[in-house]
Amino acid sequence: MARKKPCKRKRAFKIGRDAKNGRFMSVKAARRRKATAVVETIRR
To answer: What's the predicted TM-score (pTM) here?
Structure first.
């Protein structure tokens, strides 16, 4: 039987999101604004 090749893509990635209006932003900016932004991990 043939073996399955491991997936080369990352299974999870991080995004930044503004907590007030839900807009996406960079992770760097979200980490800077801890009071009004969230860094989320998205799993595939």
So the answer is: 0.68
What is the total count of domains within the chain?
A: 1
Domain carrying residue 32:
12-43
Residue at 2 is within a domain: no
Sheet holding 12-18, edge to edge: 24-25, 12-18, 37-43
Question: To which residue do tokens 């009004």 refer?
Answer: 36
Q: What is the pLDDT of residue 7?
A: 66
Q: Retrieve residue 9's tokens.
A: 């893509």
Return d(Cα 14, Cα 42) in angstroms, integer: 6
Answer whether 37's CB lies under 8 Å from 25's CB: yes
